[in-house]
Structures are given as structure tokens and as C-alpha cells.
């Protein structure tokens, strides 16, 4: 784990890339921040998490790091030990963790029950297409254990994902008063709540004509399996859907559940405080 600091004092803000070794966007964003070394008004911890997986260009070495939190300093796997070490580093910090996907070129925040309140105050400051409440679908993720805003920055390995990651990191630091500027977006961020997995049977060829975050109407074809059309019984919003991203699922169905921020919330919103 690489750890660098911007500014002096005990950091209450952290920016993390490289939780997954095959998602370089967040790593580049952290490296750019370290190289640029801006004058910060609050100290910031910059972390590249899984250097071993990055060196091997693989998601993880022994276990998926974002499924083994809180980890264990004496754990059997590299990632269990790393999870415990990373949590110790992030204690007392409000953190941004950057990821990328195989399903979407834009940006969206991944939220859990534990981070909803934090997301309400910070996400409106970030350039996000959406925020997704994923509570109850996976366990062992960093967002369940510390005040962390997790952002999917774009398509894995793309230049676009790196650009987004750098922009989001700057916006996050501005939202928390570490960098100047920082204005909430007037329109806020649409919030989706995952409702169920969309299963995928074994086949040779998959296609997903549906577009993530765009409503699929009842009767609409959302995917094909070896040319056979899968038609929606009920309307839903596809999230993290792709032909080949997961082995047994296309992705998730979600419902729209309001917005985070936006002009309806008024212009008097204060800059978010760092929760302690
Ligand atoms: Zn990831």
C-alpha cells in the first residue's frame, strides 16, 4: 500500500485508488494528485491500495479486497491483511474510493445504508450520472465500515475513466474544503435502489440492448441469450448491466428513488462537515 500526504497535520480526508488491481483510473487520479501537490487547506491522505494486484494487472491476488472488509491483520490472504491495514489508515477520515466497471462509461456513486447520510451531503458536489443504493446485495465492502463515498468512474482501463476519476477527486476535495471552489450541481443526483439480480443462463452469446439507468418498459427486450429475447414483465432501470461482466448475471434491476440534493433542497445548503 502506497501512502502519501498533501498538507500538514493529521488528515481527516482520504482519497483511495487501486482497491482492485485491474482498475487503473483511481490509481492515476491519486498519482496525479500527488504529482500536482496542490496547496490544500486541509491535509489529505492519498492511498494506492493493492499494489501487488496492480503489479499483476489482476483484480486481486488471493481474495477480492472489496468483499473481505473489515479484514484481519493475521488473515490467511494478502487481501484480508490489506483490508485491516487500509481500515486502520482510514480511521477518522472521510474517504473517496475510486473504481471502474465493465458496464458503463459514465460515473455513479455506489452507496450502502451506512453511507446514505454522507452521500446526501457530498454527492451533489460531484459530477455523477447517478447514485445507487446497493444495500443488501453484497457484503464485506469498504463502504460498510467507514464513511466512504465509492464512485465508479467509467469503463475499466479507459482514458475516460481516468479523466472522470481525477475530476471527481478534485470535486470531492473541494466539497470538503480541502481545495477552493466546490459548488453543488443544481439538478442533484438521481438515486436508484437495486431491487433484484437479473440472472443469465449458460450460453454462447449474450447481448444487452438496454442502456444502464434508462428505463426499460414492460414488454421491452432488455437482453438476448443466444439470440433469444428476454422481455421485461415490469418496468425497471438497468444498473451495472453488461453482456459479459458477470458469470451468472447480466446485472441488476433498480427502481428510481428520488434525488440527492438538487435545487428543490434550496440554495442554503452549507458545505458538508466532516463527520467524526
Ligand atoms: Zn472495483
TrEMBL record:
Its cofactor is Zn(2+). Keywords: Hydrolase, Metal-binding, Zinc. It comes from Halococcus morrhuae DSM 1307. It comes from the Archaea. InterPro entries: AspA/AstE_fam (IPR050178), AstE_AspA_cat (IPR055438). It holds the Pfam family AstE_AspA_cat. This is Succinylglutamate desuccinylase. The keyword Nucleotide-binding does not apply. Residues 257-276 are annotated as: Disordered. GO terms for molecular function: hydrolase activity, acting on ester bonds; metal ion binding. Residues 266-276 have a biased composition (Basic and acidic residues). Transmembrane segments: none annotated. One of its GO terms (cellular component) is cytosol. Residues 11-105 form the Succinylglutamate desuccinylase/Aspartoacylase catalytic domain.
Amino acid at each position: 500500500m502506497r501512502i502519501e500526504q498533501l498538507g500538514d497535520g493529521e488528515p481527516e480526508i482520504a482519497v483511495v485508488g487501486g482497491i482492485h488491481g485491474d482498475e487503473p483510473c483511481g490509481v492515476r487520479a491519486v498519482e496525479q494528485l500527488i504529482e500536482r501537490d496542490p496547496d490544500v487547506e486541509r491535509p489529505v491522505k492519498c492511498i494506492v491500495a493493492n499494489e501487488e494486484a496492480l503489479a499483476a494487472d489482476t483484480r486481486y491476488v488471493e481474495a477480492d479486497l472489496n468483499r473481505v472488509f473489515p479484514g484481519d491483520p493475521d488473515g490467511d490472504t494478502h487481501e484480508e491483511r490489506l483490508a485491516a491495514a487500509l481500515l486502520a489508515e482510514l480511521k477518522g477520515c472521510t474517504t473517496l474510493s475510486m473504481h471502474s466497471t465493465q458496464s458503463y462509461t459514465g460515473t455513479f456513486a455506489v452507496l450502502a445504508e451506512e453511507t446514505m447520510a454522507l452521500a446526501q451531503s457530498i454527492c451533489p458536489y460531484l459530477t455523477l450520472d447517478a447514485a445507487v443504493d446497493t444495500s443488501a446485495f453484497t457484503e464485506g465492502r469498504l463502504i460498510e465500515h467507514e464513511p466512504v463515498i465509492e464512485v465508479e468512474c467509467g469503463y475499466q482501463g479507459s482514458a475516460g475513466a481516468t479523466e472522470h476519476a481525477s475530476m471527481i477527486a478534485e470535486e470531492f476535495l473541494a466539497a470538503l474544503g480541502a481545495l477552493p471552489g466546490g459548488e453543488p450541481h443544481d439538478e442533484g443526483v438521481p438515486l436508484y435502489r437495486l431491487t433484484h439480480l437479473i440472472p443469465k443462463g449458460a450460453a454462447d452469446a449474450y447481448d444487452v440492448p438496454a442502456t444502464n439507468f434508462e428505463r426499460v418498459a414492460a414488454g421491452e427486450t432488455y437482453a438476448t441469450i443466444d439470440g433469444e429475447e428476454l422481455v421485461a414483465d415490469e418496468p425497471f432501470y438497468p444498473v451495472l448491466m453488461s453482456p459479459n461482466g458477470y458469470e451468472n448475471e447480466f446485472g441488476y434491476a433498480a427502481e428510481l428513488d428520488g434525488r440527492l440534493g438538487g435545487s428543490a433542497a434550496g440554495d442554503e445548503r452549507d458545505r458538508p462537515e466532516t463527520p467524526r
